Amino acid sequence: SRKSGPGNPLLERRLQNFGAASVLFYRSPIEMVRARGAWMVAENGKQYLDFYNNVPSVGHCHPRVVDAISDQVATLNIHTRYLTRVVDDYLDALKATLPGHLDNLLLSCTGSEANDLALRIASTWTGNRGFIVTETAYHGNTLATTDISPAALKKNPLPDHVVAIPPPSPLVFEDGVAQGFAAAMAKAVATLDRRGYGVAALICDSIFSSDGVFSDPAGFLADAVDVVRQAGGLYIADEVQPGFARTGECMWGFQRHAVRPDLVTMGKPMGNGFPMAGVAARAAHMNRFCEDVGYFNTFGGNPVAAAAGQAVLDIIREERLMENALNVGGQIVAGLNTLRASHPVITAVRGCGLFIGTDLCADGDPRRPDQSITTDVINGLKERGVLIGAAGKYGNTLKLRPPLCLTAGEANIFLNALEDTLGQTR
Ligand code: PMP
């Protein structure tokens, strides 16, 4: 919810320009003017610690990314129909982080485009039209990806060719997440068969970000993926959220589950804010798709994008950001569990690396999700200079995603602000 307001002329202009499509955070939105590392600065000089960060993942305005983009844009910035060394150097480096069976990489500008393409490749290969997603998933803003995004469809029913299954939550699957999730998958496959679509693919984000962050037990995804494969469908790993070292143990979220995706889509942190995304695929799948349709993207993977992407890969490696995500993420989880002992409103802490979810519930009852208290905490944190978002079917999961360069000291600033906020919230 937001205050439209006399007193904020820029907000008025924004609401008039975007109209009903305006998406702004906070009851009173913040005007940002610059950022660096884990910090953003508002027009009034107030500094905010960014715990919402899922794009400038190696740190806001990282000087190496800025230099790489500036140098390349001043040298050569063209469409993608020519040979350019910087692009293939980048693709080789990116491919080296992925499993060997994914031979081809195509670049696009947004995660939505990447997922749209992955859906088309899966349909062409399998001859099927059905897709399986999770209940509160978000996969993009195109016609096809909106159809598979219950979070974007709001209260609209899912189209007939899409079946949503519950998130891999221990509250849903009390007898074991792996087994329950696989059984739900089998039911979804049967529904798609009955409706005559068959299953083209399961598409999911391996950290289940918009479902509320479900990370454990590592490996739970494998049985569900097997069910889909046995039915002739592919598994598309949407790595837009968990990819690029955020989960701390691996470069890619699916690697925690020891599964081999047929298609991997990626985006957001890939260029640290430079718009770029991509799809990794098996050559056989790409060949079949290109016989039938083909693909061209004017801007996707141009030399400037490649320069930005290369800088991001170099920084992750050289600044040891995956290790940092694991260590500082562990510190935050430990801190949250300590807070939980004295604040029963916290009913669960989940996550890995710097992707963490914390449920807030009424009366300490995990089955009484409290969205209003979550909104109060988010706004209370904002007053204390920390930016954070919510996720999950009931909007009661605090979603923590600070930049991968977060320091132990910055993690403590967040934990102290949260403790203070919880102390002041009813
Ligand atoms: N997949 C997931 C998991 C996402 O979170 C998003 C964006 N929130 C997308 C796809 C779409 O990416 P984009 O906004 O770059 O089109």
Key structural traits:
15 strands; Aminotrans_3; 426 residues; Aspartate Aminotransferase, domain 2; 2 domains; seven-stranded mixed beta sheet; binds 4'-deoxy-4'-aminopyridoxal-5'-phosphate; four-stranded mixed beta sheet; transaminase activity; pyridoxal phosphate binding; Aspartate Aminotransferase, domain 1; transferase; single chain; alpha/beta; Aspartate aminotransferase family protein
Ligand inventory reads: 4'-deoxy-4'-aminopyridoxal-5'-phosphate
Could you tell me the mean pLDDT?
96
- Globally, the shape reads globular
The description of the largest β-sheet is: 7 strands, mixed
**Portion in beta strands:** 15-25%
The arrangement of helices and strands along the chain is HEEEHHEHEHHEHEHEEEHHHEEHEEEH
How many helices? 13
Walk me through what this model shows.
The chain has 426 residues and is α/β, with parallel strands linked by helices. It folds into two domains: 31-58 and 320-424, Aspartate Aminotransferase, domain 1 (Alpha-Beta Complex); 63-318, 3-Layer(aba) Sandwich (Aspartate Aminotransferase, domain 2), CATH 3.40.640.10. It has 13 helices and 15 strands. The chain has helices at 9-18, 63-75, 85-95, 111-126, 143-147, 150-153, 177-194, 221-230, 283-292, 303-318, 321-342, 371-383, 408-424, and strands at residues 32-36, 39-42, 47-50, 104-108, 130-134, 162-165, 199-204, 234-238, 263-266, 277-281, 346-352, 355-360, 386-387, 389-391, 397-400. The strands form three sheets. It has a seven-stranded mixed β-sheet with strand order 4-10-9-8-7-5-6, with helices on both faces. The chain has a four-stranded mixed β-sheet with strand order 1-2-3-13. Strands 11-12-15-14 form a four-stranded antiparallel β-sheet. A hairpin with a 2-residue loop joins β11 (346-352) and β12. α2 (63-75) packs antiparallel against α10 (303-318), α7 runs parallel beside α8 and α11 packs parallel to α13 (408-424). The structure holds 4'-deoxy-4'-aminopyridoxal-5'-phosphate. 4'-deoxy-4'-aminopyridoxal-5'-phosphate (PMP) is lined by residues 110-112, 115, 138-141, 205, 209, 238, 240-241, 267, 277. It holds the Pfam family Aminotran_3. Keywords: Aminotransferase, Pyridoxal phosphate, Transferase. InterPro entries: Aminotrans_3 (IPR005814), Aminotrans_3_PPA_site (IPR049704), PyrdxlP-dep_Trfase (IPR015424), PyrdxlP-dep_Trfase_major (IPR015421), PyrdxlP-dep_Trfase_small (IPR015422). This is Aspartate aminotransferase family protein. One of its GO terms (molecular function) is pyridoxal phosphate binding.
